[in-house]
Structure formats: C-alpha cells, structure tokens
Design brief:
single chain; 156 residues; alpha+beta; four-stranded antiparallel sheet
Length: 156
C-alpha cells in the first residue's frame, strides 16, 4: 500500500450533522404518525449506511506489474503498468466534488476515487483516474519508479 486517504474530520462532522437532523425529523414524524417501529428501522438503516460511507478508504497499491486503485469496501480496479501513460499531481478535491467512486465530466472517461484533499491523476490508454492521496508527490514518484520501462517515463 503506497497511499490511503479518508474523508476529513470536518466533512465527516457535516455529514453526521445532516444525517442526525434527518433522523430526528424521521423519528418524530414516525412517532406522530403512529408508525414508530418502521420509522426506527429506516432511521437505523440510514445511520448504518452513513457509517459505512464515512469509513470508506481510498487507496493506491502496487502489486507486481499492476497498480491497484481502491475505494474500500465498495470498489477496486487493477491497472497494468504497460497501460499507464502518465502520472501527475492533480488539483485538490473537496466534498463538493463528491466522495467515493465518481464519474467525472473532465474528458477521456474520467473517473474519481475521492476523499477530498490532495490527489494524483493517473492517465491510462482508456481512462483518466483522479485518486485522493495524503502524499501526492510520494505516490507520483513511486509509480514513476515502478513504471520505469514505460515509454512516457523519463529519467531525471
């Protein structure tokens, strides 16, 4: 594992605040309507789903001749080293860009594995990936070192 990133504490707080307020409204509405048990079950489901979402981890790993991009526990993809065309630092992402696996409208079938903050861009033959990482310089350097045989890689 060369990188892991999670949603920032402030963003988690915002999400929990919105979910908490929604659950309170749901439970009070269910109580007033006389359907407390179904309301509590729905509220519990919302809280459980939110917990899974805020625990997601975006990761980048190198395994043999491939790079593994992941958004645990929901998504993972392997990119073979020969398919990598370039790796660079990307613009920072934020909660407004989304969180987790994202289809992004930035050309070349861009996909994102986002947790907010610093990110790297990984260009392949068919897709562009934006992946959150706490240390983008290290990730770029490590992937470039791993991909030294690729035509796009230039020695310093």
């Amino acid at each position: 594992m060369i990188s892991e990133a999670q949603l920032a504490v402030g963003s988690k707080g915002l999400i929990w605040g919105i979910v908490g307020a929604s659950v309170i409204v749901l439970v009070v509405s269910a109580l007033v309507s006389g359907i407390l048990l179904p309301g509590l079950l729905v509220a519990a489901g919302i809280v459980a789903f939110t917990w899974v979402i805020v625990q997601m981890t975006v990761s980048i790993a190198i395994a043999e001749e491939k790079i593994v991009l992941g958004c645990a526990p929901f998504y993972s993809i392997e990119v073979s080293n020969p398919d990598v065309l370039a790796v660079t630092m990307a613009e920072n992402t934020s909660l407004s860009d989304g969180y987790g696996f994202r289809v992004m409208g930035k050309g070349k079938g861009t996909r994102g594995l986002l947790a907010g903050g610093p990110a790297v861009a990984l260009e392949t033959k068919t897709r562009r990936w934006i992946v959150s990482t706490a240390h983008p310089e290290e990730v770029v350097s490590t992937i470039q070192d791993q991909s030294a045989g690729n035509p796009w890689h230039e020695e310093p």
